[in-house]
Write a structure and sequence with these properties.
Elements (H helix, E strand, L loop, with lengths): L17 H6 L41 H14 L5 H13 L4 H16 L5 H9 L14 H8 L9 H16 L5 H24 L4 H31 L9 H21 L8 H19 L4 H14 L5 H7 L1 H4 L13 H7 L19 H8 L3 H9 L4 H5 L9
Helix pairs in contact: 2-3, 2-4, 3-4, 4-7, 7-8, 8-9, 8-10, 9-10, 10-11, 10-12, 11-12, 12-13
Length: 410
Amino acid sequence: MNPEDTTNSVLDDLQVDNSERKEKANSNVLIAIGVVVFLLASIVGYVLFSPSADVTTSPEPILSPEEQESQAAIRDGLLGESPEELHALFLDDVQSGTKDKFTKTHAYFVTHRFYDNGGNIYEIFDYVNKHPELSFLKEAETIFPEYFDLIKSKQLPTTYTDRANLANMAYAEILEKNGYADAALLSTLANQYSKTALFLKLYAAQDLDRQSFFNSLADTLLVKSENYIKKARPVVVGIYDGSTPKDSYTSHDAMVGLNQYASALRYLTAHGVQVDSIDHTGESAQIFEYTAALAKREVTDLVNFTSLIDASTLVIAGSRDVDKVQAALAPIISFDTSLTPPLPNGAIDRIIKAKNEPIAPELINRKLDVYSRTNLAGLANIAPDFRDWLITNGWSETQIDEVEIFVFGL
């Protein structure tokens, strides 16, 4: 990090000591906390509607060649492998003027690569600048110009920073503006902004010197979150209640959109924000129940992730109900790693490896995403069966107990 860069915030550099952070306190850095999370999942529901199909008993879908190609490209991207096929699929559609369900799904996963590649913002930046057909995405630079200046001058690292994350969200905003957004991208914008705002409120409570800055930024992001959740709502409701034909969206887009939407509702609940007449508690619970079933049927590689995000956001919204948290974690608790080796970089693998993550004393310097040791240890201190599962899979009592129970709003 260039110490002379006056646009950098102390929050973006975990190595900056307290005195250095205070010197940078008035910088204009936007803080978007580690959303390293590969946030993928299923279909969203309005609590007054009931599903149009029994996802737990329906037969396995038969995939078309196009669907097989799409899912293979997405899977390669999610597991941190090559993004070339995913990039090629989206570029081909932009060149041909296509904006179908596959195009929108690929658009979302192009931005999601940021979380799969460890926060390397240069991947999407270079992709956009390499192809003239993608020049419309350069409008993202007008949303957070100071951060794109850092990217252009190669001053940001190739690992996650909050500035890079906000730049990535700027690309998502421009994709939505140009008609490339479906449930996944709309709901992710709502979720990312509400989650980041929640972290900022926590920082404000701990750091009086920068309290005004944190609260102001949080309020700005909350407005964005409410805007995008309102845009996402009719899309996800249509998926859930069956009014939107199944052949008009992909399973991956539905999974991501519904889980992200439900998560955003719970983050907003933690803020005490009520969006219009949405039943936050009832609707989010029903959505996660539905997406868990859909994941088992159509997107099995997201079963355990859906379980983790359900339990984590349930706690974040204020619940400490042992039975509900353990029920949400049931797929993970029942996963026997002695019989089925975890998929490299998959949900189970990331949960197990989180045991070695260092714990910074200040929240501002700590990973707080759903795969973080802070979050997982907090869940373990609420759900005893999950605690036992972690210990069976290599965690020690100390690795759990030295992390305080971390529950937002409690």
